[in-house]
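A common beginner's mistake is to predict each chain separately and then try to dock the pieces by hand. The better habit, illustrated here, is to supply every component at once so that their relative placement is modeled jointly.
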Amino acid sequence: MNFKELDPLLHSELRLAIVSILISVESADFNFIKETTGATNGNISVQIEKLKTAGYIDVEKRFKGKMPQTICKITVKGLAAFEQYVDALKSYIDM
Amino acid sequence: MEERNLNSKESLELIAHMIQSTKSKLERGGSVYFLLWGYVSLLTTIAVYIALTLSHNPYYNWIWFAIPVIGLPLMFVIKGKVAKGVTTFIERIIGYVWFVIGVVVMIVPVVSIFLNFRFPVLAVIGILISIGVTLTGLIIKFRTYWICGLICIALSFSTLFFSAMNQIIIYAIIILVSMVIPGHILKSKENKK
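With all components supplied together, the output reads:
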């Protein structure tokens, strides 16, 4: 049986959760991700930064009224990485 | 939720859970715009009908402009309150559909003021709104919307065969069937979720 390697960047609970949210929408703000994952601000910030550095997501900071807003979008590279990750997972499940 | 590695089964469960959770959050709040515009339009229509019936003065047709005057500011207030912090392709498409319909619906009565023949304003606006409702129903796959939309397209055409006062009554029914009733059905569906 040939096991495909799992992308270590996605094979982490919170980062996988963030990417799973972003594949379902065009963009999501920090608070939506926080509400959906139930994770802490600090933890989400760290994982968003890692995903951004890897080029898996785009992060845009802007203001909504006087409130700062962080908007995240999945990139083409991130989408491809997610698809490869799910393919790799299938090879483990089908064993 | 934290930074920990998962086994393959947990990973798939997490992906499915996050997609489902995102989807159910997105389904909330869609009914509010239908109810807002539905009730503002319905109450204005009733006000116009009562004013015209009691006074027989055509100047009371200016009351129609209460719809955008009341509806637009309320919509922006509500938009800020129901904002989910997320955008989807479907929401953007529905937004474009209603933006175009909304602009045309506001232009039609203004243009009709300058025409020297009787233009069927309510029939045209009814058709435009019903097309919007039908398209919204087809895009979000909500059968109640597109069925009500199609019924109201037929009702809008039927207004052409009635007197001006009866057209107002049919228009009120169109608003009730196309926006108020489906809006409440969607809202109860959202609340159940």
